[in-house]
Amino acid sequence: METQQFRDIRPSPIAGTWYPGEPTELRTQVEAFLEKAAAPGLSGEILGLVVPHAGLVYSGFTAAHAFKTLIGSSFTRVILLSPSHQYYREPLLTSGHEAYATPLGQVPVDREALSTLGMLLQVSKGPDITPVRRDREHSLEIELPFLQVVLPQGFKLVPLMLVNQSMDLVSALSNALAGFMLTLPPEEKTLLVASSDLSHFYTEKQANQLDKRVLSALEAMDVFELFMLNASGKGQACGMAPILSVLRTCRNLGADKLVIADYRTSAAVTHDADSVVGYGSAVITKTK
Question: Using CA atoms, how far apart are residues 123 and 67, in angstroms rounded to an integer?
């Protein structure tokens, strides 16, 4: 993909804090995580990933286990779904800019794909996709440096931030996403990525119990069980709607396997087991 420079760039609000702001340092950190990570054994075509979104020093190693499976692959676009940690009245957001900027370069926003998705959402009786400018959402941006390193040929980005976490939105969005992807020619490979951390601020023992339930349901590709765990508090994921949307879309596209790539908590870095955040990563595949 040709490198293109854009004028209307979403400035990064987290470079230099959530991840290194200097290009060489950032690339070195990402590559170190990828080198150390062990990619899970897979069979079939990769359709989607689930990856955590804390600061790279905390969750980057767990994310790397899933992102490592993409090395050597090529994708025309990446549809990246995250929660929104800031409140907006609108249920579904995207970037109003032409591209995202990280220290590793610019990532173009696929406005044509967003337009098509918007029309398909109307058919599914879903919400409009509302563009916002200069958003401060970290959970979407934090995945971009990994994608830029493992997909060096470049890709177009479809950024979606889910304010609404309801099953109505999940159903409408996943129907639209699957409908969009089914219309694409074979050479336009598209990857789905869900950005989500797991349990927040429990002891490590409690976190392990909560997260085990979520990971088991995730491995079983059980959309309903995942929703009920989150709704009941028996499991937790701050990006559950992105996870469910990606999982349901992949299932609609014929996915038949989900492999947990890695799990750990923030205690692995902080050594504080009294209050932790859980991180899990996974890869969704379809038998060819």
Answer: 33
pTM, full prediction = 0.96
Structure token digits, residue 134: 């200069």
**Whole-angstrom Cα distance, residue 85 to residue 181?**
27
Instruction: Report the CATH number of the 31-286 domain.
Output: 3.40.830.10
CA-CA-CA-CA torsion for 277, 233, 280, 172, nearest 10 degrees?
A: -130
Which residue ranges make up each domain of the chain? 31-286
4 phi, psi to nearest 5 deg: -125, 140
Rounded CA-CA distance 206/196 in Å is 19
Q: Which residues of 167-180 are buried (b: 16+ CB within 10 A; e: fewer)?
A: eebbbbbbbbbbbb
Specify the DSSP class assigned to residue 68.
G
Q: What are phi and psi for residue 142, nearest 5 degrees? A: -65, -20
pLDDT digits 0-9 by tens, 29-46: 999 999 999 999 998 999
- DSSP symbol at 39: P
